[in-house]
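Task: sequence design from structure.
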Protein backbone atom coordinates (compact mmCIF):
# COMPACT_ATOMS: atom_id res chain seq x y z
CA UNK A 1 0.00 0.00 0.00
CA UNK A 2 1.42 3.40 -1.02
CA UNK A 3 1.91 5.98 1.70
CA UNK A 4 1.61 9.76 1.55
CA UNK A 5 5.40 9.97 1.56
CA UNK A 6 5.57 7.63 -1.45
CA UNK A 7 3.39 10.10 -3.34
CA UNK A 8 5.49 13.02 -2.16
CA UNK A 9 8.64 11.19 -3.28
CA UNK A 10 7.21 10.71 -6.75
CA UNK A 11 6.13 14.36 -7.02
CA UNK A 12 9.10 16.14 -5.54
CA UNK A 13 12.08 13.85 -5.89
CA UNK A 14 11.62 12.10 -9.22
CA UNK A 15 15.35 11.86 -9.80
CA UNK A 16 17.83 9.19 -8.84
CA UNK A 17 20.14 11.37 -6.73
CA UNK A 18 17.98 11.55 -3.60
CA UNK A 19 14.66 10.58 -2.05
CA UNK A 20 12.54 12.26 0.62
CA UNK A 21 11.70 9.92 3.46
CA UNK A 22 10.36 9.87 7.01
CA UNK A 23 13.06 10.37 9.63
CA UNK A 24 13.79 7.27 11.70
CA UNK A 25 15.53 6.84 15.07
CA UNK A 26 18.55 5.53 13.14
CA UNK A 27 18.88 8.99 11.50
CA UNK A 28 19.39 10.95 14.74
CA UNK A 29 23.21 11.00 14.81
CA UNK A 30 23.50 11.81 11.09
CA UNK A 31 20.86 14.56 11.41
CA UNK A 32 22.51 16.16 14.42
CA UNK A 33 25.95 16.06 12.76
CA UNK A 34 24.49 17.62 9.60
CA UNK A 35 22.82 20.38 11.62
CA UNK A 36 26.05 21.09 13.52
CA UNK A 37 27.95 21.46 10.23
CA UNK A 38 25.26 23.50 8.48
CA UNK A 39 24.13 25.76 11.35
CA UNK A 40 27.31 26.14 13.37
CA UNK A 41 28.03 25.84 17.07
CA UNK A 42 25.54 28.51 18.15
CA UNK A 43 22.50 26.83 16.58
CA UNK A 44 21.10 25.81 19.96
CA UNK A 45 20.97 29.44 21.14
CA UNK A 46 18.35 30.58 18.60
CA UNK A 47 14.81 31.51 19.66
CA UNK A 48 13.36 28.72 17.50
CA UNK A 49 15.55 26.19 19.27
CA UNK A 50 14.18 27.32 22.63
CA UNK A 51 10.68 26.43 21.42
CA UNK A 52 11.80 23.01 20.17
CA UNK A 53 13.84 22.10 23.26
CA UNK A 54 12.38 19.17 25.16
CA UNK A 55 9.76 18.44 22.48
CA UNK A 56 9.31 15.94 19.67
CA UNK A 57 8.39 16.99 16.13
CA UNK A 58 4.77 17.06 15.04
CA UNK A 59 3.42 13.63 14.09
CA UNK A 60 4.69 12.57 10.66
CA UNK A 61 6.53 15.85 10.08
CA UNK A 62 10.20 14.92 10.53
CA UNK A 63 11.62 14.32 7.07
CA UNK A 64 15.05 13.59 5.64
CA UNK A 65 16.60 13.45 2.20
CA UNK A 66 18.71 10.39 1.47
CA UNK A 67 21.29 9.85 -1.23
CA UNK A 68 21.39 6.68 -3.32
CA UNK A 69 23.36 4.94 -0.56
CA UNK A 70 20.75 5.85 2.07
CA UNK A 71 22.86 8.52 3.81
CA UNK A 72 21.08 11.57 5.24
CA UNK A 73 21.83 14.59 3.02
CA UNK A 74 19.08 16.93 4.22
CA UNK A 75 16.59 17.39 7.04
CA UNK A 76 13.49 19.35 7.96
CA UNK A 77 11.20 19.08 10.97
CA UNK A 78 7.98 20.81 11.99
CA UNK A 79 6.86 21.40 15.58
CA UNK A 80 3.50 22.01 17.20
CA UNK A 81 3.13 25.53 18.60
CA UNK A 82 0.51 28.02 19.64
CA UNK A 83 0.73 31.08 17.40
CA UNK A 84 -0.61 33.56 19.91
CA UNK A 85 -4.35 33.93 20.37
CA UNK A 86 -7.24 34.84 18.12
CA UNK A 87 -9.31 38.01 18.69
CA UNK A 88 -11.78 35.92 20.74
CA UNK A 89 -8.98 34.69 23.05
CA UNK A 90 -8.66 31.18 21.59
CA UNK A 91 -5.10 29.82 21.21
CA UNK A 92 -4.18 29.36 17.54
CA UNK A 93 -2.48 26.06 16.77
CA UNK A 94 0.21 26.12 14.09
CA UNK A 95 3.51 24.52 13.16
CA UNK A 96 7.03 25.91 13.47
CA UNK A 97 9.31 24.73 10.66
CA UNK A 98 12.98 24.20 11.24
CA UNK A 99 15.65 23.72 10.96
CA UNK A 100 15.94 23.03 7.24
CA UNK A 101 19.46 21.98 6.30
CA UNK A 102 21.23 20.33 3.39
CA UNK A 103 24.73 18.87 3.48
CA UNK A 104 27.08 21.28 1.69
CA UNK A 105 28.34 18.45 -0.53
CA UNK A 106 24.78 18.09 -1.90
CA UNK A 107 23.77 21.73 -2.32
CA UNK A 108 22.31 22.80 -5.66
CA UNK A 109 20.51 19.50 -6.29
CA UNK A 110 17.05 20.73 -5.26
CA UNK A 111 17.08 18.88 -1.95
CA UNK A 112 16.07 21.88 0.18
CA UNK A 113 13.17 22.74 -2.13
CA UNK A 114 12.02 19.12 -2.24
CA UNK A 115 12.11 18.91 1.57
CA UNK A 116 10.10 22.14 1.84
CA UNK A 117 7.44 21.03 -0.64
CA UNK A 118 7.18 17.62 1.01
CA UNK A 119 6.84 19.16 4.49
CA UNK A 120 4.18 21.65 3.36
CA UNK A 121 2.25 18.96 1.50
CA UNK A 122 2.32 16.59 4.47
CA UNK A 123 1.33 19.35 6.93
CA UNK A 124 -1.63 20.26 4.71
CA UNK A 125 -2.71 16.61 4.38
CA UNK A 126 -2.62 16.28 8.17
CA UNK A 127 -5.01 19.22 8.52
CA UNK A 128 -2.69 21.88 9.94
CA UNK A 129 -3.71 25.51 9.44
CA UNK A 130 -0.40 27.40 9.22
CA UNK A 131 3.37 27.04 9.24
CA UNK A 132 5.72 29.61 10.79
CA UNK A 133 9.49 29.90 10.44
CA UNK A 134 12.42 32.22 10.96
CA UNK A 135 14.54 32.36 7.83
CA UNK A 136 15.66 34.12 4.68
CA UNK A 137 12.58 35.74 3.13
CA UNK A 138 14.09 35.66 -0.36
CA UNK A 139 14.36 31.86 -0.16
CA UNK A 140 11.08 31.06 1.59
CA UNK A 141 8.79 33.42 -0.35
CA UNK A 142 8.85 30.99 -3.29
CA UNK A 143 7.03 28.52 -1.04
CA UNK A 144 4.42 31.12 -0.02
CA UNK A 145 5.94 32.36 3.26
CA UNK A 146 5.60 36.07 4.03
CA UNK A 147 6.09 38.35 7.04
CA UNK A 148 2.66 40.03 6.91
CA UNK A 149 0.93 37.16 8.75
CA UNK A 150 3.34 37.36 11.69
CA UNK A 151 3.26 41.11 12.28
CA UNK A 152 1.45 40.75 15.65
CA UNK A 153 3.30 37.61 16.76
CA UNK A 154 6.60 37.43 18.63
CA UNK A 155 9.21 34.77 19.25
CA UNK A 156 10.69 34.19 22.72
CA UNK A 157 14.06 35.90 22.81
CA UNK A 158 15.70 37.88 20.03
CA UNK A 159 14.60 37.45 16.41
CA UNK A 160 14.67 39.51 13.24
CA UNK A 161 11.13 40.69 12.41
CA UNK A 162 11.81 40.59 8.64
CA UNK A 163 12.82 36.91 8.89
CA UNK A 164 9.73 35.80 10.87
CA UNK A 165 7.46 34.37 8.17
CA UNK A 166 4.24 32.39 7.85
CA UNK A 167 2.32 30.35 5.32
CA UNK A 168 -1.41 29.77 5.83
CA UNK A 169 -2.45 26.28 4.78
CA UNK A 170 -6.05 27.25 5.50
CA UNK A 171 -7.13 30.71 4.37
CA UNK A 172 -7.50 33.17 7.25
CA UNK A 173 -5.99 30.81 9.84
CA UNK A 174 -3.75 33.50 11.32
CA UNK A 175 -6.25 36.36 10.90
CA UNK A 176 -5.97 38.53 13.99
CA UNK A 177 -3.35 36.27 15.62
CA UNK A 178 -1.38 38.12 18.28
CA UNK A 179 1.00 37.17 21.05
CA UNK A 180 3.94 34.92 21.86
CA UNK A 181 4.81 31.71 20.03
CA UNK A 182 4.89 28.90 22.60
CA UNK A 183 5.38 25.15 22.26
CA UNK A 184 2.38 22.87 22.66
CA UNK A 185 3.58 19.61 21.15
CA UNK A 186 4.47 16.33 22.76
CA UNK A 187 7.32 16.42 25.27
CA UNK A 188 10.33 14.14 25.11
CA UNK A 189 9.93 11.11 27.33
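Answer:
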Amino acid sequence: MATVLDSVRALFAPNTTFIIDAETPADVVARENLLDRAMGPDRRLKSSEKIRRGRVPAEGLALVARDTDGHVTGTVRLWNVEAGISPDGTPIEALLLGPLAVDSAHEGKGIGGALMRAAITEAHKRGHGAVLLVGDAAYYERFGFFADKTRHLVMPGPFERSRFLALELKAGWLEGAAGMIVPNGRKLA
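The mean pLDDT is 90.
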